[in-house]
């Protein structure tokens, strides 16, 4: 059985910080393995010192990405080495993997090899057209693969609708309908994001997903110090990248001051929310 979301993180409503790895081997911009590992480990140190609740590693700098079936083994090897270095630094802080594009089986294999704690997947249920190509429903394949490699303890956080994608193929389905399907297809948590990186989703979508499923709900984009208090009661966790980088740009270096401000904002929201629960 996968580790339950509520026992994976030490604190309620965790702040999960993104590490965007340098380009993978073969991708324009790749320098060398050592520099990529050192950069990821250094960013992990910034996050851990500030007190984030989790870390999520993603190969965002591989844009334009290719589908998992077009990847060579060098991607899995590279991500495993980076993930292992980050997990060694993080120790008991949960570390997750997200491998673009729709490389959900690769993410599972890397997480198991590197000792990581969860994965993020895209294209879990219902096909859609991403800016990288067609994303087919993958839940059946990935669940079977997780069982085959003995990784059943690794929970899967699934995007209800992927960013940077057209969802016209499922235009007759409401976001709540898709969220219900995630639970049926054995996802362990649901992620709701805005249309683009750094943009928050509509509050009505968050509410619709929360009403449609009992799965933990994570906000996948758009969390900032100035809105976290309003968003905190609506979700069960936050995945944050852009807001932690210099000038709020996803491809910029991690900014320690921004990380500290957001960690402080989440802690304040926890305190206020906890006090309100006690009063009620």
How is this structure best described in words?
- The protein has helices spanning 5-8, 33-50, 73-90, 104-114, 139-148, 175-184, 203-212, 228-231, 256-279, and strands spanning 15-20, 54-58, 95-98, 118-121, 128-130, 133-135, 156-159, 165-166, 189-192, 217-219, 237-240.
- It has 280 residues and is of the alpha/beta class.
- It has one domain: Aldolase class I (TIM Barrel, Alpha-Beta Barrel).
- The two termini are 34 Å apart.
- 47% of the residues are buried.
Element layout with pairings:
Blueprint: H1 5-8, E1 15-20, H2 33-50, E2 54-58, H3 73-90, E3 95-98, H4 104-114, E4 118-121, E5 128-130, E6 133-135, H5 139-148, E7 156-159, E8 165-166, H6 175-184, E9 189-192, H7 203-212, E10 217-219, H8 228-231, E11 237-240, H9 256-279
Parallel strand pairs: 1-2, 1-11, 2-3, 3-4, 4-7, 7-9, 9-10, 10-11
Antiparallel strand pairs: 5-6, 5-8
